[in-house]
Amino acid sequence: MLALDSILRLDAKAIDYIIIALYFTFVLGIGYLAKRAVSNSLDFFLSGRSLPAWVTGLAFISANLGAIEIMGMSANGAQYGMPTVHYFWIGAIPAMLFLGVVMMPFYYGSKVRSVPEFMLRRFGKPAHLVNAISFALAQVLIAGVNLFLLATIVNVLLGWPIWLSVVIAAVIVLSYITLGGLSAAIYNEVLQFFVIVAALLPLTIVGLHKVGGWQGLVDKITADPKGGSAQLHAWPGAELSGFHNSFLSVIGLIFGLGFVLSFGYWTTNFVEVQRALASKNMSAARRTPIIGSFPKMFVPFIVIIPGMIAAVAVPDLQKYKQTGGGSVDYNDALLLLMRDLLPNGMLGLAITGLLASFMAGMAANLSSFNTVVTYDLIERYIIKDRDDAFYLRTGRWLTVGGTIVAIGTAAIASGYSNLMDYLQQLFSFFNAPLFATFILGMFWKRMTAAAGWIGLVSGTATAIVVFVLSENGAIDLPGQGASFVGAGAAFVVDILLSVVVSLVTRPKTDEELKGLVYSLTPKEDRSEAAQEGDHGWYRKPTLLAGISLALVVVLNVVFG
């Protein structure tokens, strides 16, 4: 560890520490102020369903600006280049718009407190239990990723051992979530969004200046034997997908990433949906992911491009890319760029931005974890019919327990040189089969409760089988191709088995499915005319979604 410490040590001065200290003061202050608004479990877990759309929209996107987005995507940028934009323009925006336009009326209109609770109403207890347990497990695993990277920053900055850094970082996040619940998480996520942009935008600008502007970056990547022109174009993205055939690569990206993994993550992941459920009314809930889509589409320019710059401008990372040797890997791209390019003061802001991103991601994992475990597991199956104060206390203690488990799962994350590989595997296990069950159940009233849980279990098992075959070399797909294949296979198996099981089991009545199935839900219950207030063209979800989708198409054409 000493060699790595010496390579990544950031030369922070007093001004840098002052900036970091001010940020933590604000974070804990927000947690303390939010505590005053928590009087019951609904306030703690869903902010009393009282927040405006612009707040929940920024929190929606900031909750995703954790380790996955910042370190993972910059690592992908260093390794794969521009094809990484598919995680945003193909693998995020369309699904976010679908969530806002089509699915939020069902979530918000049914007044459920979580995604697993929606599964309970649609499919019954077995599917609900499978979904709740798998979601809780996924959150502590992903929280471990954010925690590990947060600890890495503290380790690099102060030289503390990783284990001590993990504990200190966990305590910081735990403090404000335990105090103020979801409101503390959301208002901190809004603050963190602006801090992250303020930190990464200057790094991108300074980095481009270092390599001679955009054209200089293009020339260096083109001349790099491990780079080449393929890393300057989004399509066909063969190195990212693992398919050498361009046609298969495009299909894999569109179906595996753009449809199964993306829709599985954004439309059924309670981490994100929880922010929309905290909105003050249906219109605000629908606009939450749509508002988030606008900053989301421009995040690649301050995350992926610094990774690409680091791969050609930082000698340590150049060596790793060429030979696979050395004391750094792709996950270190941003830290290496900060070390080499930023003066003091700006360095402190950049470190604060990284800390903010990991805290936002981990806080989102913990706030959704404590909600699902409290409402969907403890209240539903273990300790029933207690007063509201009991479940409020339970939620706070679960935040502590989830943090402790995340400290353990951080060790798993430390074993991956590119954390996006690890995270995409998790999404193929948990999100892809859930989306298959969800989308079939929402649009096909004949789907039965038995099909719900059988499809979920079989889909997850299929993704795990693909992962094992890939790890043993039976399936040879470099990059993140195995995750795409696993997600696609899980989706197809889930759909096929669900259809077969549904045809031989008894469905619910139409009356029971009202508000849960698209064709059986009255149009006025999911139309914009039913919204309270929020008039004006700029507050119409479908119009905003159309503008966002048009911008994404333009970006794909320009950088394709």
UniProtKB/TrEMBL annotation:
The chain crosses the membrane at residues 14-34, 54-75, 87-108, 129-154, 160-179, 191-209, 247-268, 289-314, 346-373, 394-416, 422-443, 450-470, 482-504, 542-559. GO terms for cellular component: plasma membrane. It is found in: Membrane. Its main location: membrane. Keywords: Membrane, Transmembrane, Transmembrane helix. It is a multi-pass membrane protein. One of its GO terms (molecular function) is D-glucose:sodium symporter activity. PANTHER family: SODIUM_GLUCOSE COTRANSPORTER 4 (PTHR11819:SF195), SOLUTE CARRIER FAMILY 5 (PTHR11819). Belongs to the sodium:solute symporter (SSF) (TC 2.A.21) family. This is SSS family solute:Na+ symporter. It comes from Kribbella voronezhensis. The lineage of its organism: Bacteria, Bacillati, Actinomycetota, Actinomycetes, Propionibacteriales.
